[in-house]
Sequence to fold (196 residues):
Amino acid sequence: KHTYLQQILYRTKEKGKKPLYKKIIDWFVGIIIVFLCAIVGIFAVATFTTNKNETYGLTFAFDHSFLIVLTDSMEPEYKVDSCIIIKKVNQEDVKIGDDLTFYYEPYQMVVTHRVVDIIIDESSPYYTFKLHGINTNSEQCKNANGYEDCTDQYQIITSDKVLGKVVANNYAFGQFLNFMLTPYGLIILLLIPGSY
Fold:
Protein backbone atom coordinates (compact mmCIF):
# COMPACT_ATOMS: atom_id res chain seq x y z
CA LYS A 1 0.00 0.00 0.00
CA HIS A 2 1.16 3.52 -0.83
CA THR A 3 1.24 6.21 1.77
CA TYR A 4 -0.89 9.32 1.18
CA LEU A 5 2.18 11.34 0.13
CA GLN A 6 3.26 8.65 -2.37
CA GLN A 7 -0.24 8.64 -3.88
CA ILE A 8 -0.11 12.44 -4.41
CA LEU A 9 3.35 12.20 -6.03
CA TYR A 10 2.18 9.35 -8.29
CA ARG A 11 -0.88 11.33 -9.44
CA THR A 12 1.29 14.42 -10.10
CA LYS A 13 3.68 12.37 -12.26
CA GLU A 14 0.77 10.88 -14.20
CA LYS A 15 -0.72 14.34 -14.85
CA GLY A 16 2.68 15.69 -15.95
CA LYS A 17 3.07 13.14 -18.74
CA LYS A 18 2.17 14.45 -22.19
CA PRO A 19 1.67 12.45 -25.35
CA LEU A 20 4.46 12.78 -27.92
CA TYR A 21 2.29 14.71 -30.41
CA LYS A 22 1.51 17.36 -27.76
CA LYS A 23 5.23 17.74 -27.00
CA ILE A 24 5.95 18.17 -30.72
CA ILE A 25 3.19 20.80 -31.03
CA ASP A 26 4.55 22.64 -27.97
CA TRP A 27 8.06 22.68 -29.46
CA PHE A 28 6.78 23.78 -32.88
CA VAL A 29 4.66 26.63 -31.49
CA GLY A 30 7.49 27.67 -29.17
CA ILE A 31 9.96 27.87 -32.07
CA ILE A 32 7.51 29.94 -34.14
CA ILE A 33 6.96 32.36 -31.24
CA VAL A 34 10.70 32.76 -30.62
CA PHE A 35 11.31 33.26 -34.38
CA LEU A 36 8.57 35.90 -34.69
CA CYS A 37 9.68 37.71 -31.53
CA ALA A 38 13.28 37.74 -32.77
CA ILE A 39 12.29 39.24 -36.14
CA VAL A 40 10.03 41.84 -34.53
CA GLY A 41 12.73 42.70 -31.97
CA ILE A 42 15.51 43.05 -34.54
CA PHE A 43 13.47 45.25 -36.83
CA ALA A 44 12.10 47.32 -33.94
CA VAL A 45 15.68 48.15 -32.94
CA ALA A 46 16.66 48.68 -36.60
CA THR A 47 13.74 51.07 -37.14
CA PHE A 48 15.02 53.37 -34.40
CA THR A 49 18.70 53.12 -35.37
CA THR A 50 18.42 53.48 -39.18
CA ASN A 51 18.68 56.96 -40.66
CA LYS A 52 15.79 56.78 -43.15
CA ASN A 53 17.04 59.85 -45.03
CA GLU A 54 20.24 58.02 -45.97
CA THR A 55 18.48 54.76 -46.91
CA TYR A 56 15.50 56.31 -48.75
CA GLY A 57 12.99 54.83 -46.31
CA LEU A 58 14.45 51.32 -46.02
CA THR A 59 15.14 49.74 -42.63
CA PHE A 60 18.46 47.93 -42.21
CA ALA A 61 19.41 45.42 -39.50
CA PHE A 62 23.07 44.33 -39.44
CA ASP A 63 23.55 45.85 -42.93
CA HIS A 64 20.68 43.73 -44.34
CA SER A 65 17.15 44.63 -45.40
CA PHE A 66 14.08 42.73 -46.65
CA LEU A 67 12.13 43.93 -49.70
CA ILE A 68 9.08 42.60 -51.52
CA VAL A 69 9.28 42.52 -55.33
CA LEU A 70 6.45 44.62 -56.79
CA THR A 71 7.06 44.44 -60.55
CA ASP A 72 8.01 41.83 -63.14
CA SER A 73 11.15 43.58 -64.47
CA MET A 74 13.43 40.93 -62.91
CA GLU A 75 11.36 37.83 -63.69
CA PRO A 76 11.96 34.92 -63.83
CA GLU A 77 14.86 35.51 -61.40
CA TYR A 78 12.69 37.34 -58.85
CA LYS A 79 8.96 36.74 -59.15
CA VAL A 80 6.42 39.38 -58.18
CA ASP A 81 5.72 39.12 -54.39
CA SER A 82 9.05 37.36 -53.73
CA CYS A 83 11.11 38.49 -50.76
CA ILE A 84 14.64 39.62 -51.59
CA ILE A 85 17.34 40.23 -49.00
CA ILE A 86 19.86 42.95 -49.78
CA LYS A 87 23.17 43.66 -48.09
CA LYS A 88 25.07 46.95 -48.07
CA VAL A 89 28.02 46.79 -50.43
CA ASN A 90 31.12 48.85 -51.22
CA GLN A 91 31.31 50.18 -54.77
CA GLU A 92 34.64 48.39 -55.30
CA ASP A 93 32.96 45.02 -54.63
CA VAL A 94 30.24 45.40 -57.28
CA LYS A 95 30.71 43.29 -60.42
CA ILE A 96 28.93 43.11 -63.76
CA GLY A 97 26.04 40.66 -63.33
CA ASP A 98 25.31 41.68 -59.71
CA ASP A 99 21.74 42.69 -58.88
CA LEU A 100 21.70 46.04 -57.08
CA THR A 101 18.92 47.78 -55.21
CA PHE A 102 19.17 51.54 -55.70
CA TYR A 103 17.25 54.78 -55.45
CA TYR A 104 16.23 56.00 -58.90
CA GLU A 105 15.69 59.75 -58.74
CA PRO A 106 13.71 60.27 -61.99
CA TYR A 107 10.93 58.03 -60.62
CA GLN A 108 11.71 58.72 -56.93
CA MET A 109 11.51 55.05 -56.10
CA VAL A 110 13.65 52.09 -55.02
CA VAL A 111 14.49 49.71 -57.89
CA THR A 112 16.37 46.40 -58.19
CA HIS A 113 18.11 45.74 -61.53
CA ARG A 114 21.20 43.98 -62.90
CA VAL A 115 24.56 45.68 -63.50
CA VAL A 116 25.49 45.58 -67.19
CA ASP A 117 28.38 48.08 -67.13
CA ILE A 118 30.64 49.84 -64.62
CA ILE A 119 32.26 53.21 -65.40
CA ILE A 120 35.14 54.37 -63.19
CA ASP A 121 36.06 58.04 -63.46
CA GLU A 122 39.26 58.90 -61.59
CA SER A 123 38.05 62.48 -61.09
CA SER A 124 34.91 61.33 -59.22
CA PRO A 125 34.70 59.60 -55.83
CA TYR A 126 31.73 57.57 -57.10
CA TYR A 127 31.54 54.72 -59.58
CA THR A 128 28.82 54.91 -62.22
CA PHE A 129 26.66 51.84 -62.87
CA LYS A 130 24.51 51.02 -65.88
CA LEU A 131 21.65 48.73 -64.86
CA HIS A 132 18.89 46.92 -66.67
CA GLY A 133 15.92 44.68 -65.84
CA ILE A 134 16.32 41.15 -67.19
CA ASN A 135 12.71 40.78 -68.39
CA THR A 136 12.64 42.40 -71.84
CA ASN A 137 8.85 41.87 -72.01
CA SER A 138 8.07 43.50 -68.69
CA GLU A 139 4.71 45.17 -68.09
CA GLN A 140 6.70 48.25 -67.06
CA CYS A 141 7.75 48.84 -70.67
CA LYS A 142 4.30 48.95 -72.25
CA ASN A 143 3.67 52.05 -74.33
CA ALA A 144 0.35 53.57 -75.40
CA ASN A 145 -0.04 50.91 -78.11
CA GLY A 146 0.57 48.06 -75.65
CA TYR A 147 3.95 47.26 -77.19
CA GLU A 148 6.42 45.73 -74.75
CA ASP A 149 10.16 45.99 -75.33
CA CYS A 150 12.56 46.83 -72.53
CA THR A 151 15.70 46.17 -74.55
CA ASP A 152 16.89 49.79 -74.55
CA GLN A 153 15.48 50.82 -71.19
CA TYR A 154 18.25 51.06 -68.63
CA GLN A 155 19.27 53.25 -65.71
CA ILE A 156 22.53 55.13 -65.11
CA ILE A 157 23.23 55.79 -61.42
CA THR A 158 26.18 56.72 -59.23
CA SER A 159 27.24 54.48 -56.35
CA ASP A 160 25.94 56.92 -53.71
CA LYS A 161 22.42 55.85 -54.76
CA VAL A 162 23.12 52.15 -54.23
CA LEU A 163 21.34 50.69 -51.21
CA GLY A 164 22.62 47.15 -51.43
CA LYS A 165 23.27 43.99 -53.40
CA VAL A 166 20.77 41.12 -53.56
CA VAL A 167 22.17 38.18 -51.59
CA ALA A 168 19.06 35.96 -51.35
CA ASN A 169 15.48 35.65 -52.52
CA ASN A 170 12.55 33.44 -51.61
CA TYR A 171 9.06 33.39 -53.09
CA ALA A 172 7.40 31.48 -50.22
CA PHE A 173 8.80 33.85 -47.56
CA GLY A 174 7.57 36.80 -49.63
CA GLN A 175 4.08 35.29 -49.67
CA PHE A 176 4.26 34.81 -45.90
CA LEU A 177 5.35 38.44 -45.31
CA ASN A 178 2.65 39.75 -47.65
CA PHE A 179 0.00 37.76 -45.78
CA MET A 180 1.28 38.92 -42.39
CA LEU A 181 0.87 42.53 -43.50
CA THR A 182 -2.84 42.03 -44.21
CA PRO A 183 -5.43 42.55 -41.42
CA TYR A 184 -6.05 38.77 -41.24
CA GLY A 185 -2.32 38.10 -41.02
CA LEU A 186 -1.86 40.57 -38.18
CA ILE A 187 -4.77 39.00 -36.29
CA ILE A 188 -3.24 35.53 -36.69
CA LEU A 189 0.14 36.90 -35.63
CA LEU A 190 -1.47 38.05 -32.37
CA LEU A 191 -3.71 35.00 -31.91
CA ILE A 192 -1.01 32.29 -32.22
CA PRO A 193 1.04 33.43 -29.18
CA GLY A 194 -2.12 34.50 -27.33
CA SER A 195 -3.91 31.18 -27.75
CA TYR A 196 -0.77 29.27 -26.81
